[in-house]
Amino acid sequence: MTATLSPWRVAANRFRPKPRKWASPGAMASAIDRGHRQTAMLARIDQELVELFDGKDDRGLMIFTPPQEGKSERVSRRTPAWLLAHDPTLRIAIVSYSADKAVRWGKQILRDVRAHPELGIVLRKDAQTAGRWETEQGGRLFCVGIQGGITGEPVDVMVIDDPVEGRAEAESATYREAAWDWWESNASTRQSSRFRVLLMMTRWHEDDLAGRLLAREPGRWRVLRIPAIAEEGDPLGRRPGEELASVQQRRRGYFHQLKELRSAYVFSGIYQQAPTVAEGNLFRRADFRYWHQLPADPSRHGPLSGGRIDLGGRAVPLDDLWRFLTVDLAASTKTSADWTVASVWGISPDGDLILLDRRRGRIEEAEHWDLVRPLRERWAADTVFVEAGWIGTTLVIDATASGVPVQPLTADTDKLTRALPATSRVKAHRVWFPAGVPWLDEWCDELAGFPSAQHDDQVDTLAYAARVVTMHWVRQDAAGPDGDAAASAGAAIEQAYTAATGGDTGGIDFMSLDY
């Protein structure tokens, strides 16, 4: 139990407004504003607000919803007016990342009070600035930014509306620490005997102000999280996958389409209000390494035309890589279904695993080869690895008919265990991703979110690739007794191949492959 919040329990029965003319902030808004719109989400927020201010629950309230759906309008504008209409002695603070944003709400509430005498809020004539005004009964509303603080002001109701401005601040340890210091040293010391607090913010980061409060003050907060796309146990009673009925009257499928356009990290934080671990779980972003394209070497005439890449200061010719594909297949084309993902890999002479390219799509089984073939042709990759259960599918039939070897990978463990060799290679900085490609965020976000991210199809292709190379790789420069480095390379590839497929080389002559 946190000492700074001890007044909350004492205050449980002290927040007793007079009988209300309007049952909720939404009911008041409907009465004074003919253009007001009510949605299921806003009705649910109203329910939580009424419970908070009826004295039935003395915990703080956190509200997390997608942006532009009326949350701030309901909480930062309508709720203070609703409260003061029923108890004009309340001292209310609106706090945001900047004073300007907070003052905008104060200005709007002041306009509402002046335009609607039926609210019954009588203002002091000598205290009516937009960011700080008072009632005749001693109540007041003041609007501040976090940096300005609430020095010397006792507070009955605190509305915290976005304590950080955006992703950059949320991902900055300095800004996160400043927000926490503000709460501990300033906000939590301003509590009156009937203190109530509401916190709204976009959940960019697990260790943001909301995340830290939930971790350090367990049992002191009630959380209402309404995602754009419903999950199990939805607070609005929606079925999983059902979209939010938007106050903006967005077209059907809007959020699902947006999900396809945004990276998993961004969509999960902004629209689902469920931040993934920015630094990563098993795959840590700090361990990710990226290769860059170098000018081609005109003296080389291999299938990749002398292309070269930079691996942290090492120039590696693409024709020196053994190139192969790993494919994770999905049979469904549903929006919520898994993806079919094809990844092209190279193994460097030093044994580094290099992601060269990737394609993915929600496609029918008959289209699998159409997804894979262009990658195989572009990178002159010789072998396609797929999970053993898909060996009899159209992909394998079409690939075999085209003369492309396809080999099975046995998925004999769960996804988490299967990914562990890949996590070790990434941690050792022996896996490289292409810098600057349009899909890089999608790739990195999925890896960082694994195993809790919604999808893991790309992770599977990495796990399979790691199986091809891990534990049985021998450096290509370790030549055999006759000095034939190529022979050693072929033997090393065969060892890796055997490790991945359980011993079946499919009759491939590894010494003849172009690696």
From TrEMBL:
Superkingdom of the source species: Bacteria
A family per Pfam: Terminase_6C
Domain Terminase large subunit gp17-like C-terminal: residue ranges: 326-465
Keywords: Viral release from host cell
InterPro entries recorded: Phage_terminase_lsu-like_C, Terminase_6C
Gene3D superfamilies per the UniProt record, alphabetical: 3.30.420.240
Name by which UniProt lists this protein: Phage terminase large subunit
Source species: Nonomuraea helvata
